[in-house]
Amino acid sequence: MSIQTKASRVTVSTLRKMKAEGEKIASLTAYDASFAAVLDEAGIDIILVGDSLGMVVQGHDTTVPVSVDDMVYHSRCVASRCQRAMLMVDMPFMSYTSSQQALETARRLMQEGGGQMVKLEGGEREVETVRKLSEQGVPVCAHIGLQPQLINKLGGYRVQGREHHQATKMLEDAVALQEAGADALVLECVPEILAAEITANLDIPTIGIGASPACDGQILVLHDILGITPGHVPKFTKNFLQGNKRIQDAISSYVVEVKRGTFPATEHCFES
Ligand code: KIV
């Protein structure tokens, strides 16, 4: 039996190879088929169907109201036009409170939504869930640092890991998640020095959002890079439509700047 794979599709081994060879991973969110096609064409390596859709598509204040049905629907839309990029899908709030529930959520996101990797927020608390998912053949990206699903506990979106004990814990969590089988790690709103230390201590790639160019890759919310986010614009983002006439060119500029390591610049980063 010969196994046919699309030669150019980004897989977990592609991501590890990119880290080993020092090639930066460019990633963005998308929630529909048309933008998925634009991102794929521009050379985005990972398209994330993020639960940020609760804010940018559904108009909520947080990601908390997003359901598994919402994620499956948007994932299926994106999957229909995503050919080269790896399709990563967020496990929404309260959809992975036990390993059993997490397995069922991942099954839906992959079998019904067409996802190739799932992303879940949490450090030590999620290590056993990551292990169970990984044992069943589910590629997992863990998400530490600022965890937007915890917003009602945190009371605000703040930089994480500035205190010495928090930084030590974050590094320990990152290593534990890798040992449990995580294939990638998103670091959100983390000071540059800590992001660099975590990245250097892992074999799996780190993908930063507000976590400096020290990470192995970058991820941003699509609406932020097109300058259509209403209200407060996060410090770590950049409007790539400025200086470009077409959305396609803005996305290509983002890919080029991430690959060259010129984005994020100092003004997009946080100090300890
Ligand atoms: O939901 C989301 O968009 C995310 C980010 C990392 C971009 O989790």
Structure explained in plain terms:
Helix 2 (33-42) crosses helix 4. It contains 11 helices and 8 strands. An 8-stranded parallel beta barrel has the order 1-2-3-4-5-6-7-8, surrounded by 8 helices. The protein has 272 residues and is an alpha/beta fold. It has a single domain, classed as TIM Barrel (Alpha-Beta Barrel), CATH 3.20.20. The site of 3-methyl-2-oxobutanoic acid (KIV) has 11 residues, from strand 6.
The string of secondary-structure elements, in order, is HEHEHHEHEHEHHEHEEHH
Low-confidence stretches: none
The rounded Rg comes to 17 Å
Mean pLDDT: 96
Biggest sheet: strand arrangement: 1-2-3-4-5-6-7-8
Summed up, the domain count is 1
Number of H/I helices: 11
Small-molecule binders:
3-methyl-2-oxobutanoic acid
CATH class reads Alpha Beta
Helix content: 25-40%
Rounded to the nearest angstrom, the distance between the terminal CA atoms is 54 Å
Number of strands: 8
Looking at the structure, the CATH topology is TIM Barrel
Biggest sheet overview: 8 strands, parallel, barrel
Overall SS class: alpha/beta
CATH second-level architecture: Alpha-Beta Barrel
